[in-house]
From TrEMBL:
Residues 118-229 form the CxC5 like cysteine cluster associated with KDZ domain. Residues 398-436 are annotated as: Disordered. Residues 414-426 have a biased composition (Acidic residues). It comes from Mycena alexandri. It holds the Pfam family CxC6. Coiled coil: none annotated. This is CxC5 like cysteine cluster associated with KDZ domain-containing protein. InterPro entries: CxC5, CxC6. Residues 317-381 form the CxC6 like cysteine cluster associated with KDZ domain.
Protein backbone atom coordinates (compact mmCIF):
# COMPACT_ATOMS: atom_id res chain seq x y z
CA UNK A 1 0.00 0.00 0.00
CA UNK A 2 1.34 3.49 -0.83
CA UNK A 3 2.57 5.24 2.30
CA UNK A 4 0.05 8.15 2.34
CA UNK A 5 -1.37 9.99 5.36
CA UNK A 6 -4.76 8.63 6.41
CA UNK A 7 -6.57 11.96 5.82
CA UNK A 8 -5.75 11.73 2.07
CA UNK A 9 -7.46 8.39 2.01
CA UNK A 10 -10.49 9.81 3.82
CA UNK A 11 -10.63 12.73 1.35
CA UNK A 12 -10.61 10.34 -1.62
CA UNK A 13 -13.36 8.24 -0.10
CA UNK A 14 -15.46 11.35 0.47
CA UNK A 15 -15.38 11.96 -3.31
CA UNK A 16 -16.55 8.40 -3.98
CA UNK A 17 -19.00 7.55 -1.17
CA UNK A 18 -20.10 4.34 -2.95
CA UNK A 19 -16.59 2.90 -2.49
CA UNK A 20 -16.71 3.39 1.28
CA UNK A 21 -19.85 1.25 1.38
CA UNK A 22 -18.79 -1.51 -1.07
CA UNK A 23 -15.06 -2.08 -0.54
CA UNK A 24 -13.32 -3.40 2.58
CA UNK A 25 -9.88 -2.25 3.72
CA UNK A 26 -8.39 -5.60 2.71
CA UNK A 27 -9.92 -5.34 -0.78
CA UNK A 28 -8.64 -1.79 -1.19
CA UNK A 29 -5.17 -2.82 -0.04
CA UNK A 30 -5.14 -5.74 -2.49
CA UNK A 31 -6.46 -3.49 -5.30
CA UNK A 32 -3.66 -0.96 -4.75
CA UNK A 33 -0.88 -3.52 -4.73
CA UNK A 34 -2.33 -5.34 -7.76
CA UNK A 35 -2.64 -2.19 -9.91
CA UNK A 36 0.99 -1.34 -9.09
CA UNK A 37 2.05 -4.82 -10.21
CA UNK A 38 -0.14 -4.59 -13.34
CA UNK A 39 0.89 -1.03 -14.32
CA UNK A 40 3.30 -2.10 -17.14
CA UNK A 41 0.54 -4.32 -18.65
CA UNK A 42 -2.04 -1.53 -18.34
CA UNK A 43 0.30 0.97 -20.04
CA UNK A 44 1.18 -1.36 -22.89
CA UNK A 45 -2.44 -2.13 -23.77
CA UNK A 46 -3.42 -0.53 -27.13
CA UNK A 47 -6.25 1.35 -25.39
CA UNK A 48 -3.59 3.43 -23.60
CA UNK A 49 -1.25 3.98 -26.58
CA UNK A 50 0.95 7.04 -26.09
CA UNK A 51 -0.22 7.65 -22.51
CA UNK A 52 2.02 7.21 -19.47
CA UNK A 53 0.59 9.02 -16.42
CA UNK A 54 -1.55 6.62 -14.37
CA UNK A 55 -4.34 9.22 -14.04
CA UNK A 56 -4.69 9.28 -17.88
CA UNK A 57 -4.86 5.52 -18.28
CA UNK A 58 -7.98 3.41 -18.79
CA UNK A 59 -8.17 -0.05 -17.23
CA UNK A 60 -8.22 -2.60 -20.09
CA UNK A 61 -11.19 -5.00 -20.00
CA UNK A 62 -9.16 -8.17 -19.12
CA UNK A 63 -7.60 -6.31 -16.16
CA UNK A 64 -11.04 -5.16 -14.95
CA UNK A 65 -12.33 -8.73 -15.20
CA UNK A 66 -9.28 -10.14 -13.44
CA UNK A 67 -9.58 -7.63 -10.55
CA UNK A 68 -13.35 -8.15 -10.25
CA UNK A 69 -12.91 -11.92 -10.06
CA UNK A 70 -9.93 -11.98 -7.74
CA UNK A 71 -11.26 -9.32 -5.33
CA UNK A 72 -14.87 -10.51 -5.60
CA UNK A 73 -16.14 -7.05 -6.52
CA UNK A 74 -18.60 -5.99 -9.26
CA UNK A 75 -16.83 -4.64 -12.37
CA UNK A 76 -18.52 -1.25 -11.85
CA UNK A 77 -16.86 -0.97 -8.41
CA UNK A 78 -13.47 -1.96 -9.87
CA UNK A 79 -13.81 0.82 -12.44
CA UNK A 80 -14.82 3.23 -9.67
CA UNK A 81 -11.79 2.13 -7.58
CA UNK A 82 -9.56 2.94 -10.56
CA UNK A 83 -11.20 6.37 -10.90
CA UNK A 84 -10.65 7.02 -7.18
CA UNK A 85 -7.18 5.57 -6.67
CA UNK A 86 -5.70 4.75 -10.10
CA UNK A 87 -3.17 7.61 -9.84
CA UNK A 88 -1.63 5.84 -6.80
CA UNK A 89 -0.54 2.93 -9.01
CA UNK A 90 3.22 2.68 -9.05
CA UNK A 91 3.66 4.87 -5.94
CA UNK A 92 6.49 3.48 -3.79
CA UNK A 93 4.97 1.18 -1.22
CA UNK A 94 6.20 0.33 2.23
CA UNK A 95 5.31 -2.53 4.46
CA UNK A 96 6.23 -3.58 7.93
CA UNK A 97 7.73 -7.03 8.36
CA UNK A 98 6.24 -8.11 11.69
CA UNK A 99 8.46 -11.18 11.90
CA UNK A 100 11.52 -9.03 11.47
CA UNK A 101 10.39 -6.66 14.21
CA UNK A 102 9.45 -9.44 16.59
CA UNK A 103 12.65 -11.32 15.84
CA UNK A 104 14.93 -8.37 16.53
CA UNK A 105 13.10 -5.86 18.77
CA UNK A 106 10.68 -8.38 20.29
CA UNK A 107 13.41 -10.36 22.00
CA UNK A 108 14.76 -7.11 23.43
CA UNK A 109 11.41 -6.46 25.13
CA UNK A 110 10.88 -10.12 26.07
CA UNK A 111 7.97 -10.43 23.60
CA UNK A 112 7.49 -13.44 21.31
CA UNK A 113 5.23 -13.29 18.29
CA UNK A 114 4.06 -16.89 18.43
CA UNK A 115 2.91 -19.22 21.16
CA UNK A 116 2.98 -23.00 21.24
CA UNK A 117 -0.05 -24.02 23.27
CA UNK A 118 -0.85 -27.49 24.65
CA UNK A 119 -4.44 -28.85 24.67
CA UNK A 120 -6.67 -27.14 27.24
CA UNK A 121 -8.33 -30.26 28.71
CA UNK A 122 -7.01 -33.58 30.01
CA UNK A 123 -7.43 -36.52 27.63
CA UNK A 124 -6.88 -39.27 30.21
CA UNK A 125 -10.05 -41.42 30.33
CA UNK A 126 -10.54 -41.18 34.08
CA UNK A 127 -10.19 -37.39 34.22
CA UNK A 128 -13.52 -36.56 32.56
CA UNK A 129 -12.11 -33.90 30.28
CA UNK A 130 -10.86 -31.88 33.27
CA UNK A 131 -9.54 -28.39 32.41
CA UNK A 132 -5.75 -28.14 32.70
CA UNK A 133 -4.11 -25.61 35.06
CA UNK A 134 -0.71 -24.48 36.37
CA UNK A 135 0.25 -22.63 33.19
CA UNK A 136 4.01 -22.37 32.74
CA UNK A 137 5.78 -20.45 29.99
CA UNK A 138 9.29 -20.17 28.66
CA UNK A 139 11.02 -18.77 25.58
CA UNK A 140 12.29 -20.96 22.75
CA UNK A 141 13.37 -20.64 19.11
CA UNK A 142 11.18 -21.52 16.15
CA UNK A 143 12.93 -22.37 12.86
CA UNK A 144 10.61 -21.81 9.90
CA UNK A 145 10.85 -22.40 6.17
CA UNK A 146 9.60 -19.01 4.95
CA UNK A 147 9.75 -16.75 7.97
CA UNK A 148 13.26 -17.39 9.24
CA UNK A 149 14.14 -17.83 12.91
CA UNK A 150 11.55 -16.52 15.36
CA UNK A 151 11.27 -16.25 19.13
CA UNK A 152 8.37 -18.30 20.44
CA UNK A 153 6.66 -18.77 23.80
CA UNK A 154 6.20 -22.40 24.80
CA UNK A 155 3.38 -23.17 27.23
CA UNK A 156 2.78 -26.25 29.35
CA UNK A 157 -0.28 -27.12 31.46
CA UNK A 158 -0.93 -29.67 34.16
CA UNK A 159 -3.67 -32.07 35.27
CA UNK A 160 -3.84 -32.50 39.06
CA UNK A 161 -5.96 -35.66 38.78
CA UNK A 162 -3.59 -37.81 36.74
CA UNK A 163 -0.46 -35.71 37.37
CA UNK A 164 0.25 -35.30 33.67
CA UNK A 165 2.12 -32.35 32.18
CA UNK A 166 0.75 -31.38 28.79
CA UNK A 167 3.08 -29.92 26.15
CA UNK A 168 2.23 -28.91 22.59
CA UNK A 169 3.09 -32.32 21.04
CA UNK A 170 2.97 -34.76 23.96
CA UNK A 171 2.03 -35.35 27.56
CA UNK A 172 4.11 -36.85 30.37
CA UNK A 173 2.67 -38.57 33.40
CA UNK A 174 4.71 -38.28 36.63
CA UNK A 175 7.44 -36.37 34.77
CA UNK A 176 9.95 -36.50 37.63
CA UNK A 177 9.97 -40.30 37.77
CA UNK A 178 12.94 -41.98 36.10
CA UNK A 179 10.80 -44.08 33.75
CA UNK A 180 8.36 -41.32 32.75
CA UNK A 181 7.31 -41.53 29.09
CA UNK A 182 6.44 -38.84 26.57
CA UNK A 183 3.21 -39.90 24.93
CA UNK A 184 2.65 -38.14 21.59
CA UNK A 185 -0.91 -37.12 20.71
CA UNK A 186 -0.95 -38.66 17.22
CA UNK A 187 -0.64 -37.03 13.82
CA UNK A 188 2.33 -34.93 12.76
CA UNK A 189 2.12 -31.42 14.28
CA UNK A 190 2.81 -28.42 12.07
CA UNK A 191 5.39 -27.34 14.64
CA UNK A 192 7.48 -30.02 16.25
CA UNK A 193 9.18 -29.61 19.63
CA UNK A 194 12.50 -31.20 18.84
CA UNK A 195 14.07 -30.21 22.13
CA UNK A 196 13.04 -28.01 25.01
CA UNK A 197 14.32 -24.88 23.30
CA UNK A 198 14.05 -25.78 19.61
CA UNK A 199 10.82 -25.95 17.66
CA UNK A 200 10.90 -26.81 13.95
CA UNK A 201 8.23 -26.27 11.30
CA UNK A 202 7.10 -29.52 9.72
CA UNK A 203 7.50 -28.17 6.18
CA UNK A 204 11.14 -27.36 6.93
CA UNK A 205 11.78 -31.01 7.85
CA UNK A 206 10.09 -32.01 4.59
CA UNK A 207 12.57 -29.76 2.74
CA UNK A 208 15.50 -31.44 4.54
CA UNK A 209 14.15 -34.84 3.61
CA UNK A 210 13.99 -33.77 -0.03
CA UNK A 211 17.56 -32.41 0.12
CA UNK A 212 18.72 -35.72 1.59
CA UNK A 213 16.83 -38.06 -0.72
CA UNK A 214 17.46 -36.22 -3.99
CA UNK A 215 20.89 -34.71 -3.50
CA UNK A 216 22.40 -36.80 -0.71
CA UNK A 217 22.69 -33.76 1.55
CA UNK A 218 23.95 -34.45 5.07
CA UNK A 219 22.49 -32.74 8.14
CA UNK A 220 25.64 -30.63 8.09
CA UNK A 221 24.82 -29.48 4.53
CA UNK A 222 21.12 -28.95 5.35
CA UNK A 223 22.00 -26.72 8.31
CA UNK A 224 24.47 -24.74 6.20
CA UNK A 225 21.87 -24.24 3.46
CA UNK A 226 19.41 -23.05 6.08
CA UNK A 227 21.82 -20.69 7.83
CA UNK A 228 23.05 -19.25 4.52
CA UNK A 229 19.92 -19.00 2.41
CA UNK A 230 16.79 -19.40 4.50
CA UNK A 231 17.37 -17.39 7.65
CA UNK A 232 15.81 -14.04 6.86
CA UNK A 233 18.08 -11.99 9.10
CA UNK A 234 21.79 -12.45 9.35
CA UNK A 235 22.38 -10.82 12.73
CA UNK A 236 25.21 -12.64 14.47
CA UNK A 237 23.17 -12.77 17.66
CA UNK A 238 20.45 -14.81 15.99
CA UNK A 239 20.51 -18.49 16.83
CA UNK A 240 22.06 -20.70 14.16
CA UNK A 241 20.65 -24.04 13.19
CA UNK A 242 22.93 -26.93 14.21
CA UNK A 243 23.32 -30.26 12.36
CA UNK A 244 22.28 -32.16 15.52
CA UNK A 245 18.96 -30.28 15.48
CA UNK A 246 18.47 -31.29 11.83
CA UNK A 247 19.09 -34.95 12.70
CA UNK A 248 16.86 -34.91 15.79
CA UNK A 249 14.09 -33.27 13.72
CA UNK A 250 14.50 -35.77 10.90
CA UNK A 251 14.22 -38.83 13.15
CA UNK A 252 11.42 -37.49 15.35
CA UNK A 253 9.36 -36.34 12.36
CA UNK A 254 9.79 -39.71 10.63
CA UNK A 255 8.79 -41.58 13.80
CA UNK A 256 5.70 -39.39 14.20
CA UNK A 257 4.71 -39.96 10.57
CA UNK A 258 5.29 -43.69 10.92
CA UNK A 259 3.23 -43.93 14.14
CA UNK A 260 0.40 -42.00 12.46
CA UNK A 261 0.46 -44.27 9.42
CA UNK A 262 0.42 -47.42 11.52
CA UNK A 263 -2.09 -45.98 14.02
CA UNK A 264 0.11 -46.53 17.05
CA UNK A 265 1.05 -44.08 19.83
CA UNK A 266 4.64 -42.92 19.79
CA UNK A 267 6.14 -43.15 23.30
CA UNK A 268 9.72 -42.19 24.17
CA UNK A 269 11.52 -41.85 27.53
CA UNK A 270 11.14 -38.38 29.03
CA UNK A 271 14.26 -38.36 31.19
CA UNK A 272 16.89 -39.18 28.56
CA UNK A 273 19.31 -37.28 26.36
CA UNK A 274 18.16 -36.33 22.87
CA UNK A 275 20.81 -38.67 21.45
CA UNK A 276 19.29 -41.72 23.18
CA UNK A 277 15.65 -40.80 23.62
CA UNK A 278 14.45 -42.27 20.34
CA UNK A 279 16.55 -45.45 20.40
CA UNK A 280 13.81 -47.92 21.38
CA UNK A 281 11.34 -46.40 18.93
CA UNK A 282 13.95 -46.49 16.14
CA UNK A 283 14.77 -50.10 16.93
CA UNK A 284 11.12 -51.16 16.82
CA UNK A 285 10.64 -49.47 13.46
CA UNK A 286 13.85 -51.04 12.12
CA UNK A 287 12.59 -54.47 13.11
CA UNK A 288 9.25 -53.79 11.45
CA UNK A 289 11.05 -52.83 8.23
CA UNK A 290 13.05 -56.05 7.87
CA UNK A 291 11.92 -57.94 4.77
CA UNK A 292 8.34 -56.78 4.26
CA UNK A 293 8.04 -53.45 6.12
CA UNK A 294 8.29 -51.00 3.21
CA UNK A 295 4.95 -49.34 2.38
CA UNK A 296 5.29 -50.42 -1.24
CA UNK A 297 6.35 -53.99 -0.47
CA UNK A 298 3.19 -55.37 -2.13
CA UNK A 299 3.57 -53.04 -5.13
CA UNK A 300 2.85 -54.11 -8.70
CA UNK A 301 2.61 -52.26 -12.01
CA UNK A 302 2.99 -53.03 -15.69
CA UNK A 303 6.72 -52.23 -15.42
CA UNK A 304 7.39 -55.08 -13.00
CA UNK A 305 4.52 -57.46 -13.71
CA UNK A 306 3.47 -58.56 -17.20
CA UNK A 307 0.74 -60.77 -18.54
CA UNK A 308 2.49 -63.03 -21.04
CA UNK A 309 0.31 -65.67 -22.66
CA UNK A 310 -2.04 -66.71 -19.86
CA UNK A 311 0.53 -66.14 -17.14
CA UNK A 312 1.13 -63.22 -14.83
CA UNK A 313 4.92 -62.85 -14.56
CA UNK A 314 6.74 -60.56 -12.17
CA UNK A 315 10.42 -59.77 -11.79
CA UNK A 316 12.92 -58.32 -9.31
CA UNK A 317 16.63 -57.63 -9.31
CA UNK A 318 19.02 -57.94 -6.41
CA UNK A 319 22.46 -56.39 -6.23
CA UNK A 320 25.00 -55.19 -3.71
CA UNK A 321 26.07 -51.65 -3.04
CA UNK A 322 29.10 -50.53 -1.08
CA UNK A 323 27.58 -48.74 1.88
CA UNK A 324 28.40 -49.85 5.41
CA UNK A 325 28.74 -49.02 9.07
CA UNK A 326 31.37 -49.72 11.70
CA UNK A 327 30.94 -53.13 13.29
CA UNK A 328 32.70 -55.55 15.64
CA UNK A 329 36.23 -56.48 14.55
CA UNK A 330 35.44 -60.19 14.76
CA UNK A 331 34.44 -61.42 11.30
CA UNK A 332 30.67 -61.80 10.83
CA UNK A 333 29.86 -60.71 14.41
CA UNK A 334 26.57 -58.77 14.29
CA UNK A 335 26.41 -57.63 17.93
CA UNK A 336 26.12 -53.81 17.94
CA UNK A 337 29.02 -51.76 19.27
CA UNK A 338 28.61 -49.99 22.61
CA UNK A 339 29.88 -46.78 21.00
CA UNK A 340 31.07 -45.58 17.61
CA UNK A 341 34.77 -45.59 18.40
CA UNK A 342 34.84 -49.15 19.76
CA UNK A 343 36.76 -51.81 17.86
CA UNK A 344 34.79 -54.70 19.30
CA UNK A 345 31.27 -55.40 20.53
CA UNK A 346 30.69 -55.86 24.28
CA UNK A 347 30.92 -59.66 23.90
CA UNK A 348 34.34 -59.43 22.24
CA UNK A 349 35.56 -56.35 24.11
CA UNK A 350 38.45 -58.25 25.72
CA UNK A 351 40.12 -58.44 22.31
CA UNK A 352 40.72 -54.69 22.33
CA UNK A 353 43.47 -55.24 24.93
CA UNK A 354 45.18 -57.94 22.86
CA UNK A 355 47.81 -57.17 20.22
CA UNK A 356 46.18 -56.86 16.79
CA UNK A 357 48.96 -58.79 15.04
CA UNK A 358 47.72 -62.18 13.91
CA UNK A 359 48.65 -64.90 16.36
CA UNK A 360 50.15 -62.62 19.02
CA UNK A 361 48.34 -62.92 22.33
CA UNK A 362 50.25 -60.33 24.30
CA UNK A 363 48.50 -57.35 25.77
CA UNK A 364 48.55 -54.24 23.63
CA UNK A 365 50.23 -51.11 25.00
CA UNK A 366 48.08 -48.24 26.33
CA UNK A 367 47.10 -46.06 23.34
CA UNK A 368 48.32 -48.76 20.93
CA UNK A 369 46.73 -51.62 19.04
CA UNK A 370 49.88 -53.74 19.26
CA UNK A 371 52.05 -55.12 22.06
CA UNK A 372 55.52 -53.74 22.77
CA UNK A 373 57.25 -56.31 20.57
CA UNK A 374 59.37 -53.91 18.44
CA UNK A 375 58.35 -55.56 15.18
CA UNK A 376 54.65 -55.42 16.01
CA UNK A 377 54.97 -51.83 17.15
CA UNK A 378 56.84 -50.88 13.98
CA UNK A 379 54.04 -52.50 11.97
CA UNK A 380 51.50 -50.23 13.66
CA UNK A 381 53.68 -47.12 13.37
CA UNK A 382 54.04 -47.75 9.65
CA UNK A 383 50.23 -47.93 9.33
CA UNK A 384 49.74 -44.74 11.30
CA UNK A 385 52.20 -42.90 9.07
CA UNK A 386 50.39 -44.18 6.01
CA UNK A 387 47.02 -43.23 7.54
CA UNK A 388 48.23 -39.68 8.20
CA UNK A 389 49.42 -39.34 4.61
CA UNK A 390 46.05 -40.63 3.36
CA UNK A 391 44.25 -38.12 5.59
CA UNK A 392 46.30 -35.19 4.28
CA UNK A 393 45.53 -36.32 0.73
CA UNK A 394 41.81 -36.59 1.44
CA UNK A 395 41.74 -33.14 3.08
CA UNK A 396 43.58 -31.63 0.10
CA UNK A 397 41.17 -33.26 -2.37
CA UNK A 398 38.19 -31.87 -0.43
CA UNK A 399 39.78 -28.40 -0.31
CA UNK A 400 40.43 -28.41 -4.06
CA UNK A 401 36.87 -29.51 -4.74
CA UNK A 402 35.48 -26.74 -2.50
CA UNK A 403 33.98 -29.33 -0.13
CA UNK A 404 34.00 -29.40 3.66
CA UNK A 405 37.37 -30.65 4.85
CA UNK A 406 37.41 -33.73 7.08
CA UNK A 407 38.05 -33.03 10.76
CA UNK A 408 41.45 -34.28 11.92
CA UNK A 409 41.14 -37.27 14.27
CA UNK A 410 41.35 -36.56 17.99
CA UNK A 411 43.97 -39.25 18.59
CA UNK A 412 46.84 -40.63 16.52
CA UNK A 413 45.27 -44.06 16.73
CA UNK A 414 42.31 -42.90 14.62
CA UNK A 415 44.61 -42.42 11.62
CA UNK A 416 44.62 -46.22 11.38
CA UNK A 417 41.09 -46.00 9.92
CA UNK A 418 42.41 -44.01 6.96
CA UNK A 419 44.30 -46.95 5.49
CA UNK A 420 42.21 -48.53 2.71
CA UNK A 421 40.38 -51.55 4.05
CA UNK A 422 41.77 -53.96 1.48
CA UNK A 423 45.24 -53.36 2.95
CA UNK A 424 44.02 -54.06 6.44
CA UNK A 425 42.58 -57.48 6.10
CA UNK A 426 42.07 -60.32 8.48
CA UNK A 427 44.96 -62.68 8.86
CA UNK A 428 44.43 -65.49 6.36
CA UNK A 429 46.48 -68.09 8.17
CA UNK A 430 48.26 -68.94 11.42
CA UNK A 431 50.93 -66.62 12.90
CA UNK A 432 53.95 -65.73 10.84
CA UNK A 433 57.11 -66.46 12.80
CA UNK A 434 59.18 -64.23 10.52
CA UNK A 435 60.26 -60.81 11.73
CA UNK A 436 59.79 -59.43 8.26
CA UNK A 437 57.40 -56.45 8.53
CA UNK A 438 55.84 -57.10 5.16
CA UNK A 439 54.64 -60.54 6.16
CA UNK A 440 52.95 -59.42 9.37
CA UNK A 441 49.17 -59.42 9.11
CA UNK A 442 46.60 -57.95 11.40
CA UNK A 443 43.49 -55.77 11.40
CA UNK A 444 44.45 -52.43 12.89
CA UNK A 445 41.53 -50.29 11.73
CA UNK A 446 37.91 -50.66 12.71
CA UNK A 447 35.89 -53.16 10.70
CA UNK A 448 33.05 -52.09 8.39
CA UNK A 449 30.10 -54.12 7.26
CA UNK A 450 30.68 -55.50 3.76
CA UNK A 451 27.77 -54.13 1.75
CA UNK A 452 24.08 -53.31 1.58
CA UNK A 453 21.92 -55.55 -0.57
CA UNK A 454 18.76 -54.27 -2.23
CA UNK A 455 15.86 -56.12 -3.82
CA UNK A 456 14.33 -53.88 -6.47
CA UNK A 457 11.26 -54.44 -8.64
CA UNK A 458 12.09 -53.99 -12.32
CA UNK A 459 10.12 -50.71 -12.36
CA UNK A 460 12.55 -49.23 -9.80
CA UNK A 461 10.50 -49.62 -6.59
CA UNK A 462 12.85 -50.85 -3.84
CA UNK A 463 11.24 -53.67 -1.87
CA UNK A 464 13.77 -54.31 0.86
CA UNK A 465 17.28 -53.79 2.12
CA UNK A 466 19.68 -55.86 4.20
CA UNK A 467 23.15 -55.32 5.64
CA UNK A 468 25.63 -58.05 4.76
CA UNK A 469 28.32 -58.25 7.41
CA UNK A 470 30.66 -60.60 5.60
CA UNK A 471 31.06 -60.80 1.85
CA UNK A 472 28.05 -61.05 -0.46
CA UNK A 473 27.76 -64.76 0.34
CA UNK A 474 25.29 -66.84 -1.65
CA UNK A 475 23.61 -68.02 1.57
CA UNK A 476 23.08 -64.41 2.69
CA UNK A 477 21.42 -63.59 -0.64
CA UNK A 478 19.21 -66.66 -0.32
CA UNK A 479 18.21 -65.76 3.27
CA UNK A 480 17.47 -62.22 2.15
CA UNK A 481 15.14 -63.56 -0.58
CA UNK A 482 13.35 -65.73 2.02
CA UNK A 483 12.89 -62.78 4.39
CA UNK A 484 11.65 -60.44 1.66
CA UNK A 485 9.19 -62.99 0.20
CA UNK A 486 8.21 -64.90 3.34
CA UNK A 487 6.64 -68.33 3.29
CA UNK A 488 3.27 -67.03 4.56
CA UNK A 489 2.96 -64.90 1.40
CA UNK A 490 3.87 -67.32 -1.40
CA UNK A 491 2.16 -64.96 -3.85
CA UNK A 492 4.81 -62.33 -3.20
CA UNK A 493 7.57 -64.54 -4.65
CA UNK A 494 8.52 -63.11 -8.06
CA UNK A 495 8.57 -65.28 -11.16
CA UNK A 496 12.16 -64.13 -11.88
CA UNK A 497 14.99 -62.73 -9.78
CA UNK A 498 17.88 -61.21 -11.72
CA UNK A 499 21.18 -61.43 -9.87
CA UNK A 500 24.73 -61.28 -11.12
CA UNK A 501 25.68 -64.50 -9.35
CA UNK A 502 22.54 -66.47 -10.16
CA UNK A 503 24.39 -69.52 -11.45
CA UNK A 504 26.12 -69.93 -8.07
CA UNK A 505 22.88 -69.25 -6.22
CA UNK A 506 20.99 -71.80 -8.31
CA UNK A 507 23.72 -74.40 -7.83
CA UNK A 508 23.48 -73.83 -4.10
CA UNK A 509 19.66 -74.12 -4.15
CA UNK A 510 19.71 -77.33 -6.15
CA UNK A 511 22.17 -78.86 -3.68
CA UNK A 512 20.25 -77.65 -0.62
CA UNK A 513 18.31 -80.15 1.47
CA UNK A 514 16.63 -77.45 3.53
CA UNK A 515 12.86 -77.80 2.99
CA UNK A 516 12.45 -74.01 2.97
CA UNK A 517 14.64 -73.70 -0.12
CA UNK A 518 12.51 -76.00 -2.25
CA UNK A 519 9.86 -73.30 -2.74
CA UNK A 520 12.42 -71.22 -4.65
CA UNK A 521 12.35 -73.84 -7.42
CA UNK A 522 9.33 -71.94 -8.77
CA UNK A 523 11.54 -68.90 -9.43
CA UNK A 524 13.61 -68.33 -12.56
CA UNK A 525 17.17 -67.08 -11.95
CA UNK A 526 18.34 -65.43 -15.16
CA UNK A 527 21.65 -63.67 -15.70
CA UNK A 528 22.30 -60.99 -18.29
CA UNK A 529 24.18 -61.48 -21.51
CA UNK A 530 27.47 -60.07 -20.16
CA UNK A 531 27.38 -62.24 -17.08
CA UNK A 532 29.49 -65.11 -18.44
CA UNK A 533 32.35 -62.88 -19.54
CA UNK A 534 32.41 -61.20 -16.12
CA UNK A 535 31.93 -64.22 -13.91
CA UNK A 536 33.46 -67.22 -15.70
CA UNK A 537 36.90 -67.83 -17.08
CA UNK A 538 35.38 -70.20 -19.62
CA UNK A 539 31.81 -70.55 -20.67
CA UNK A 540 30.12 -72.44 -17.90
CA UNK A 541 27.83 -75.23 -19.03
CA UNK A 542 25.58 -75.14 -15.96
CA UNK A 543 25.16 -71.40 -16.37
CA UNK A 544 24.38 -71.67 -20.09
CA UNK A 545 21.85 -74.44 -19.46
CA UNK A 546 20.06 -72.79 -16.52
CA UNK A 547 20.61 -69.06 -16.36
CA UNK A 548 21.43 -67.62 -19.77
CA UNK A 549 18.83 -65.60 -21.68
CA UNK A 550 18.13 -68.48 -24.11
CA UNK A 551 16.71 -70.45 -21.18
CA UNK A 552 13.99 -67.84 -20.70
CA UNK A 553 12.48 -67.19 -24.16
CA UNK A 554 9.14 -66.17 -22.58
CA UNK A 555 10.66 -62.97 -21.16
CA UNK A 556 12.88 -62.13 -24.12
CA UNK A 557 11.91 -59.63 -26.76
CA UNK A 558 14.53 -60.12 -29.49
CA UNK A 559 17.88 -59.63 -27.76
CA UNK A 560 16.49 -57.81 -24.73
CA UNK A 561 14.59 -58.76 -21.59
CA UNK A 562 11.00 -57.55 -21.38
CA UNK A 563 11.89 -56.50 -17.83
CA UNK A 564 14.44 -53.82 -16.94
CA UNK A 565 17.16 -56.02 -15.48
CA UNK A 566 19.35 -53.02 -14.60
CA UNK A 567 16.79 -51.54 -12.18
CA UNK A 568 19.03 -52.43 -9.20
CA UNK A 569 22.07 -50.80 -10.78
CA UNK A 570 20.11 -47.57 -11.17
CA UNK A 571 18.83 -47.76 -7.59
CA UNK A 572 22.35 -48.52 -6.33
CA UNK A 573 23.77 -45.50 -8.07
CA UNK A 574 21.31 -43.38 -6.13
CA UNK A 575 21.82 -45.33 -2.88
CA UNK A 576 25.61 -45.08 -2.94
CA UNK A 577 25.46 -41.32 -2.26
CA UNK A 578 24.52 -42.03 1.37
CA UNK A 579 27.81 -43.72 2.27
CA UNK A 580 29.56 -40.58 3.57
CA UNK A 581 26.45 -39.66 5.58
CA UNK A 582 25.81 -43.00 7.27
CA UNK A 583 29.38 -44.22 7.59
CA UNK A 584 29.77 -43.07 11.20
CA UNK A 585 26.14 -43.35 12.26
CA UNK A 586 25.17 -45.56 15.19
CA UNK A 587 23.56 -48.71 13.84
CA UNK A 588 19.97 -47.82 14.87
CA UNK A 589 20.10 -44.49 13.06
CA UNK A 590 21.96 -46.04 10.13
CA UNK A 591 19.21 -48.58 9.46
CA UNK A 592 16.39 -46.15 10.09
CA UNK A 593 17.85 -43.45 7.86
CA UNK A 594 18.44 -45.79 4.91
CA UNK A 595 14.95 -47.33 5.15
CA UNK A 596 13.47 -43.85 5.32
CA UNK A 597 15.41 -42.72 2.23
CA UNK A 598 14.08 -45.79 0.39
CA UNK A 599 10.48 -45.01 1.46
CA UNK A 600 10.77 -41.42 0.29
CA UNK A 601 12.31 -42.39 -3.03
CA UNK A 602 9.64 -45.06 -3.56
CA UNK A 603 6.95 -42.47 -2.92
CA UNK A 604 8.43 -40.22 -5.61
CA UNK A 605 9.04 -43.14 -7.97
CA UNK A 606 5.50 -44.51 -7.72
CA UNK A 607 4.10 -41.09 -8.65
CA UNK A 608 6.24 -41.14 -11.78
CA UNK A 609 5.07 -44.66 -12.57
CA UNK A 610 1.49 -43.41 -12.23
CA UNK A 611 2.17 -40.50 -14.60
CA UNK A 612 3.75 -42.94 -17.07
CA UNK A 613 0.40 -44.79 -17.07
CA UNK A 614 1.76 -48.04 -15.66
CA UNK A 615 -1.08 -48.43 -13.16
CA UNK A 616 0.82 -48.86 -9.89
CA UNK A 617 -1.16 -50.57 -7.15
CA UNK A 618 -0.76 -52.61 -3.97
CA UNK A 619 -1.74 -56.27 -4.19
CA UNK A 620 -4.07 -57.07 -1.24
CA UNK A 621 -2.23 -59.21 1.35
CA UNK A 622 -4.99 -61.84 1.17
CA UNK A 623 -4.16 -62.36 -2.53
CA UNK A 624 -0.49 -62.89 -1.67
CA UNK A 625 -1.33 -65.75 0.66
CA UNK A 626 -1.62 -67.97 -2.41
CA UNK A 627 0.82 -68.24 -5.30
CA UNK A 628 -0.11 -65.92 -8.17
CA UNK A 629 -0.46 -67.41 -11.61
ZN1 LIG B 1 -5.79 -35.94 33.89
ZN1 LIG C 1 6.22 -51.84 -10.54
ZN1 LIG D 1 31.58 -59.10 18.38
ZN1 LIG E 1 52.10 -58.49 19.49
ZN1 LIG F 1 27.16 -68.07 -14.56
Amino acid sequence: MPDVPLDQLVARLANFPQLGQSVSLTQLQAFLSLISRLLPAIRSDPVNAGLTLPSHLTLPVPVVDFLATSLQLPTSIVILCWAGFGDWAGEPTTSINEDELLGSLGTHFGIAGDTLEPPSHCTTDTCNNAPLTKRQEYQATLFTLRRGVLPITVVSLYCHHCQSTYHHDYKVRHASQAHAQREYYGGVPERIMVSMHHVIERELVVLWEAQMVFSGASAEAASRIYNTALRTRTAETEEKLLPTTVWDSFFLHALLRDATKREITLCVPHNATNADRMNTALEMRNMWMVGTGQDLWAHACTGCQKIIGNKRLSACVTDRVTVGHVCCGVADCQIPLANQSAWFCPAHSKLQFICAVAGCEHRSGIGWRTCDNPTHRAFEEQRRTKGKAMFVLRARQARNAGQAEPRPPTSDMDYLDEVPEEEDQDPPTAPTPSNDLVKIRGRLSRRWTHNEQLIVRCCGIILSRATFFGSEAITSVKDFIHVTFPVQYPGSLPSYIFFDNNCLLLRHLLASVHPRDSRLSAVGFPVDVFHASRKHKDSDEFCTMNCSPVTFPEIMDGDAWVFNSSAAEQANKWFRQFQPIVKEMPILRYNFFLDEMISLRNEWRVNRIRVEGKGPHLIPLADLETRLS
